[in-house]
Amino acid sequence: MSREGKYDIGIGISSKVKRTISYLVGWQQSQSYTALPSSDEPESVDLATSPSKPTAPPHARPKLPFRRIWTPNVLFTMLAQALFDFHIGAFASLWPLLLCTPRSLGTTSPSPFVFTGGLGMPPIHVGTAMSIIGFVGLVLQFLIYPGVHARLGTQYCYRIFSLLFAVSYGLAPFLVRVSALSTGSEDSDSDRGGGTSSVVWLCITLVLSIYVTARVFVMPATLMLLNNCAPHPSVLGTVHGIGQTVSSVFRTLGPVVGGWLYGVGFERGVVGLVWWVVALVAVAGWVGSCFVREGSGHEIWLEGDENHGREGDGNHG
After folding, report:
1. Cα distance between residue 276 and residue 263, in whole Å
2. Cβ contact 145:170 at 8 Å
3. Distance, CA of 141 to CA of 212 (rounded, Å)
4. pLDDT in tens, 170-211
């Protein structure tokens, strides 16, 4: 208020500004940090007054030494898988060669095992013959495999159907003979044109059906048996790594050795040589499969396995 008793606007605004500044300054001071009292001596803590609950050290999972991995079941499983991958890889390279190799124009040998040449198919027929593998495989995989596997089990599916590989490999080169007989003569120039009779197609389907049946039942069994042959859970990854390495090596060797033997047999007039050698490899694989058993994945027990198993059961509970 002014001296005459009238309200002065300037003085009122000045008073409100002062009150606002004073309020803000006081609020900032209240929010600022307060220095802690300094002391040269560290604050002592009485550990006796605050006892802590002792914790037991965690149990380390026991690990099987590498030298103990090689049980008889692991060795036979690896051997059977190596032979399986070898002849599977060889077939993948030999089958297209047999289909597209020109038919022989030479003289016919009286021996049923001495003949050369191939089926002389054009590319379109080679593609059709290759597609039969996929078609038969789909039918067997969805309609036949589940029921048969449920009844026989993994181990017996592996042993029984492994022998069918040798049957299909042994019959494959005789398709050349069938092709020659169905056209009347191996020496006919028209045979080189690629004409394929219905009899030849029927025999091709039969041979491929035998091969695909074996592959449909044996290939999944191979993976399951490899998984279960590990003697201890701690080496499951190691066994899988070794198995994949073995598989890769022998799937590479199969086409290399098969292609070389195919060339040797073709030059000597015995195109079936490589097929019968691969059939013998398949027989050896079948013999090895008779010694493979379906393991539990935990055949060797180490000290501490029981405690670790109880801890796992408690965590799941």
Report:
1. 14
2. no
3. 10
4. 999 999 988 888 765 444 444 444 457 889 999 999 999 999
CA 167/CA 224 separation, integer angstroms: 24
pLDDT at 279: 97
- Residue 288 DSSP class: H
71 alpha-carbon distance from chain centroid = 22
Residue 175 tokens read as 């398709």
Taking alpha carbons only, the member of 193, 207, 198 closest to residue 121 is 193
CA dist 251 → 20, 163, 255 (Å): 87, 19, 7
What pTM was estimated for this model as a whole? 0.72
Residue in the structure block whose two tokens are 């054009």: 122
d(Cα 156, Cα 20) in Å, to the nearest integer?
A: 93
Query: Cα separation of 9 and 15, whole Å?
Result: 10
Q: Are 1 and 8 in contact (CB under 8 A)?
A: yes
The two structure tokens encoding residue 59: 């149990």
